[in-house]
Structure formats: structure tokens, C-alpha cells
Specification:
Number of helices: 7
Largest sheet: 6 strands, parallel
Bound molecules: magnesium ion
Shape: globular
Distance between the termini: 41 Å
CATH architecture: 3-Layer(aba) Sandwich
Order of helices and strands: EHEHEHEHEHEHH
Oligomer: single chain
Strand order of the largest sheet: 1-6-5-2-3-4
Radius of gyration: 15 Å
CATH superfamily: HAD superfamily/HAD-like
Number of domains: 1
CATH topology: Rossmann fold
CATH class: Alpha Beta
């Protein structure tokens, strides 16, 4: 199913560059927060993320957060950045994504959405007609629902890897996870 297949994969958010987007005529980048940019437990963006985000504004790409998480989490995360955002986004439903793309002055066809979940982020991008970028989750919760969702993702991820043998394999995990593990030692 094309709805469950990303258009691109990266090892971690920071491997996505402004040049990748401009080469494809993309002017708006929507970002999932949890497990894409930071683990759930990290309330504020770190230095690397702030520098990475600044690179997109410098390249003239409008960036916004599109999160299914609640307002408190998203407003705190965004407090020092002041980007446009929508929380409780109900991804994969495309309504809020389309609204945010419009706010950022773009069109779905020239927008990208990056996230860590196929059935919310990738599907939302596809339902909008935006470019779907998938990264491995940084630190999954160990609850039943998350495990179930990840189990359902296995088939689409296997198909993607088979079709795109040279693309980063999301199943290999996110290098940020290793960094966090190192810090915990
Ligand atoms: Mg996420």
C-alpha cells in the first residue's frame, strides 16, 4: 500500500538537509516532535536541534511542529523557538496538517512531513499529498499499544527496505538512541 510507504528515510532527523528539500521544490517542513526530534522525556530542544532548525530558516524553508501530543508539551518544546505549530493534530487525519502548511505559506504538494510512525506521520503526509519522510524512533515507550503499532509497521518497513536497498533502513534504529544509552551508563 502506497499509503504506508515513505518517500524517503533518514537515520535520524539531522540527516535531512535544506538542500534535500530545495532540490525537490519543497518550501514547507512539518515536524513530528516525540521520538522524531527528541524522546518524550526531553522537554526542550537541545543545541544540535536548534542549530539544525536554523539551517532551514536560512534556506527559506518554513518549519512548523505537527504533534499528536497535548498543548502543554508542544508549547513548552517550542517556547524558545517560536515556530508555528499545531498540537492534538490527530494524525493521520490530514486536516490540521493542511492547515499548518497553509499557515506556513505553502501547498501540500510542496511540503514535507517528517516523523517516526508509519500509521500517523507517513499516512498523514500521504493523505495530504505531501512528501513523507520517516526516521527511526528515538526511544519508544514499552507499552502494549506502542509495541502493537511497531509490530504492524514491520511489513511496510520490510517492503520499503526491499524496494530501496540503498536507503537508510529504519529498522536499524536511530543513532540518537545510542547517544542516550551512552549518557545513561
Ligand atoms: Mg512521534
Amino acid at each position: 500500500m502506497a499509503f504506508f510507504q515513505p518517500d524517503a528515510t533518514f537515520r535520524a532527523y539531522y540527516d535531512l538537509t535544506p538542500a534535500y528539500l530545495t532540490a525537490r521544490g519543497i518550501t514547507v517542513l512539518l515536524l513530528d516532535i516525540d521520538n522524531t526530534l527528541a524522546p518524550y522525556e526531553q522537554p526542550l530542544p537541545d543545541e544540535r536541534l536548534r542549530t539544525w532548525l536554523a539551517g532551514f530558516s536560512e534556506a527559506g524553508i518554513a518549519v512548523g511542529f505537527l504533534s499528536n501530543n497535548h498543548g502543554e508539551r508542544v508549547t513548552l518544546f517550542n517556547s524558545e523557538l517560536g515556530l508555528s505549530y499545531l498540537c492534538n493534530a490527530h494524525k493521520p487525519l490530514p486536516r490540521k496538517a493542511k492547515k499548518l502548511i497553509k499557515t506556513l505559506g505553502g501547498k501540500p504538494k510542496t511540503a514535507a512531513l517528517m516523523g517516526d510512525q508509519i500509521f500517523t506521520d507517513v499516512c498523514c503526509a500521504k493523505l495530504c499529498g505531501a512528501h513523507a519522510i520517516l526516521v527511526p524512533p528515538i526511544w519508544d515507550r514499552r507499552d502494549g499499544l506502542t509495541r502493537f503499532k511497531r509490530k504492524l509497521e514491520r511489513g511496510p518497513l520490510r517492503r520499503y527496505a526491499k524496494k530501496h536497498p540503498d536507503a537508510p533502513d529504519v529498522r536499524a534504529g536511530n543513532p540518537i538512541t545510542e547517544e542516550i544509552r551512552e549518557k545513561m551508563k
